[in-house]
Amino acid sequence: MNLKDPICAIATPPGKGAIGVVRLSGEGALEIAARVWRGKDPRRLKGGRFALGEVVDPKTGEAIDQAILLVFRAPRSYTGEDLVEFQTHGSPAVLRRVMEVLVAEGARPAGRGEFTFRAYLNGKMDLAQAEAVLALIEAEGELARRQALRALEGALSRRIEALENRLLNLLAHIQALLDYPEEGVEPLEAERTIREVLAEVEALLAQAKASRLAQKGARLALIGAPNAGKSSLLNALLGYERALVSPIPGTTRDYLEAPLELFGIPLVAVDTAGVRETEDPVERMGVERALGIAEEADLVLYVVDRSQPKPAPPPLPWARTLKVATKSDLPPAWEDPEFLPVSSLTGEGLDRLKEAVREALLGREGGEVLLTERQVEALLRARERLEEALSLPEDLMGLALEEAARALALLTGKEVAEEVVARVFQNFCVGK
Amino acid sequence: MAGYDVVVVGGGHAGLEAAWAAAALGVRVALVTVNPDRIGMMPCNPAVGGPGKSQLVAEVVALGGLMGRAADAAAIHTRVLNRSKGPAVQSLRVQVDRDLYALKAQEILAERPVEVLRGEVAALWVEGGRLLGVRTVDGRTLPAKAVVVAGGTFLSGVVWYGRKSRPAGRQGEPPARFLSQSLKAVGHTLRRFKTGTPPRIRADSVDFGRLEVVPPEVPPGSFTGNPGPHAARLPTWQTRTTARTHRLIRENLHLSPLYAGDIQGIGPRYCPSIEDKVVRFADKESHLLFVEPDGLSTTEVYLQGFSSSLPPELQEEMVRSLPGFERAVIQRYAYAVEYDSLDPTELTRGLQSRLLPGLFSAGQVNGTSGYEEAAAQGLLAGLNAARFALGLPEVHLPRESGYIGVLVDDLVGRGTDEPYRMMTSRVELRLLCRADNADERLTPLAVAWGLRPKEDLERVEAKYRRVAAELRRLQALRVEGVSGLQWLRRPENTYRALAERFPPSEPLSPEEAYQVEVRAKYAGYIERQERLREKMKDLEAFRIPEGMDFPKVPGLSREAAEKLSRHRPKSLAEAARIPGVRDSDLTALAVHLRRGA
After folding, report:
1. SUPFAM superfamilies, alphabetically (chain A)?
2. pLDDT (tens digit, 9 = 90+) per residue, B120-150?
């Protein structure tokens, strides 16, 4: 636990809302905010002031969302520390990305009740409120324990432990070399082992992404030419008239969103305006917007009318795009096995489409691996240190790997220093 | 007879430093030992330092201790280990002349008015729950305000040669037969620990021509900056076990008291006997052995790596199976020793008994192993014993302050199930707590506590002012389009090369130049460790009052309450290091502490 380091959390309730709020508090909050912000420098803002701009990923320069940034300066903030609030669009995908860049820049996802706890520590709260925090900790501590237990059962637990095990053995090897430099400990193939451990961390994180979708919902975009049948498909998926369906191409000018649940995955389906070459400035804005939405979506359905000649494909993120051929009840104008034929009218192919969506979002394992935020954070931190360790001399490599191991130890409860000492003597014949 | 302020029991490396440090505070100190001629003796290998341990010695030196001075004066061979592996793990090891070391240690001790008394302490003199001094076996009473027990392996010591045993503290020396009872009567928990030592071979029976030579480094290294006159005098050597050695061991394991189950004591993992190595690493065909000269005249060599508790007859055969030792004559056989040690979790971080005020302990008695670990504790215990006698509060070295801090925190905070050895991997902040900056870290404390004169601090401060000034100069300097600091950060560049091209107005000493180089090259990692240290300090600032009723703290899990009640941490930082205590428990504890305040 740390009492001052920068922490961040999504402050708005889970699910889709008009706006979403991410809070960042602690020492260095303003500096972190400045790194992920394109707009007026938050470090120059007075307390209580706001600025308009964009949240960006400083690694790629990619803009994540337009947002309002509010600055509160210590002690005049909720926590009594420097605090920055980002107000973005309410999409869970956006909020998640904002959290990701904040964590990548050095903030830590807050523990349960941690904002409140800091407020109390800094004298922003009275005793009665503190009692409430305590009750929360008690209740949620129990819940967290049960969750952690459940999460650590079975396959995941074995994988994390195997990972930790390799890391500890590697660390023990380095330490055996450093603490017993003369005793003939075999030289280390550190780079190969680190790369192998890294690959496994990546694999777990990829699954984590799938399981976070399962927990927090995903954003699904329907993209296609005007009148390709996107709105009808959305209606068929939803089972009621949601989008405005009309035979006039380009009816959906902007976009429509609808909540949807498939196999327990909360989805936000976005039915975009059609994508076609157009002179109409209003419609063209809609097209650009549609492509932008596709970029942000977790999964894209590229919807094409099979009864009409096949149009030239728009620029889409194809790696996470499913191709759908609509109006399969009509005589086909073309055949393409990459496209999934469906009919919104008869319901043909809808079940297969749902299954394909589920698989694309959760992977073939069906998202059995559920990773909590804590586990994801631990893996992210471990990954960062492992990548760094690759290029370091032995003593610093040892320190970096030790931090990686500590991150994983948060999940397994192992005592890193003790484990390493134990393994030095178990695995190596050293000591005189 | 007048009373003492501090009585130190034992003249080993812990007792020496305890008496030396206590005397620095101007109190009246007596050191009681069975054999005053053997003060400062090295019962195991004739070397000081090595990874983890050299950092302890550097801190002892910075705190005004005597071990570094004695080792440098008696040095016959030095090596810097891990030279290429980074500043955090570079370690000096000094081979010493065994007799000269003891002599130098005794000479240094004589610089302060410590009364050395011959005798065996039989018991603590306790009346009405108050410590009044000690009683000796021959019936003397020595009144004292504070007592430091530094009995090494002597407390109810038993030595083993094969399956035969006899009471002894070390080879040829009687054990402390009664003191254990006294500690038990106070309420301390005693455990049996075990350690071992290899055979000593007559030097003139060894064929050195068949051994691999390890020459001493020139110029020699030192702990104090003043290498002794013989510090680059002698080589050390290496040999290896053979198939015949391994067969002899395997065929005769039943003769070992450990494998036969006679010894119950817990031995250290890091000091395995040759039997252990052969059994546990059966696929290794050969083990490296280090042949260390005992001194300048080298009448005896020490066979490092060959400790054993097999019977003497067999040891002869085993030794003769080694290349270069075909006609070797064993002068002293290897043996194992079992002894009492107390549970260090019953001590304060000033190494004072929680059960009897004024009683301090240090060294193997507290469950450690090694001269350096003993010396470090002796210094802290002696200092606090003197402060106790003067009515001053205990002083501590927190974990983030360095190796001694980690040593004490591990011992007192978690306890140990085997003799504890210092290792670099135990120290989270090892990049900040290097041997080379021990002076910067600890001289201010040493001066504040009266262990070193004020002038020393002025000298150290001047040194680091020059280092800081040079770093500022390099920051402003432009070299090949970048600042001097950035240029220095490139792995292929050195400070020496930079200073040649852009010399400072006054050249830096080699030590100062090294500081500049390390600080420039490792700036990013040092900064990260500094943040970690701040975090440790934050939690340290949350003090937990003595006698806190943990089960009554709302929100604490039962498991955590139990563990906290057992370990009795003094701060949130200490609580955080207890296995099984979670962040949510710390939060609950912090809220509770805040509420009480």
Report:
1. P-loop containing nucleoside triphosphate hydrolases
2. 999 999 999 999 999 999 999 999 999 999 9
What residues contact residue B85 under an 8 Å CB cut-off, 6+ apart?
Answer: A177, A178, A181, A393, A394, A395
Scan residues 235-294 of B and list those with Cβ closer than 8 Å to A. 268-272, 277, 280-281, 284, 287-288, 290
pLDDT in tens, B98-113: 999 999 999 999 999 9
Based on DSSP, count helices (H) and strands (E) in chain B, helices before strands.
19, 22
**Nearest-neighbour CA in chain B from A263: distance (Å):** 34
**Cβ–Cβ under 8 Å, residues A177 and A394:** yes
Tell me the ipTM for this assembly: 0.84
CA pair distance B163, B259, nearest whole angstrom: 10
Cβ of residue B415 closer than 8 Å to a chain A Cβ = no
Of B88, B304, B555, Cβ closest to residue A138: B555
B274 known ligand binder? yes
Decide if B483 contacts B475 (C-beta within 8 A).
Answer: yes
- Give chain B's radius of gyration (CA, Å): 25
Same domain, A174 and A282: no
The shortest C-alpha distance from B585 to chain A (Å) reads 9
Alpha-carbon Rg of chain A, whole angstroms? 25
Starting at the earlier edge strand, list the strands of the sheet with B330-332. B212-214, B236-240, B288-293, B300-304, B200-202, B330-332
Number of domains in chain B: 4
Parent domain of B548: 541-596
Closest B-chain CA to A432 = B305
Angstrom distances, CA of residue B130 to CA of A251, B186, B355 = 94, 10, 10
Whether residue B321 is contained in a domain is answered as yes
Consecutive H or E run containing B18: helix B13-24
Q: Which amino acid is at A145?
A: R
Q: How many structural domains comprise chain A?
A: 3
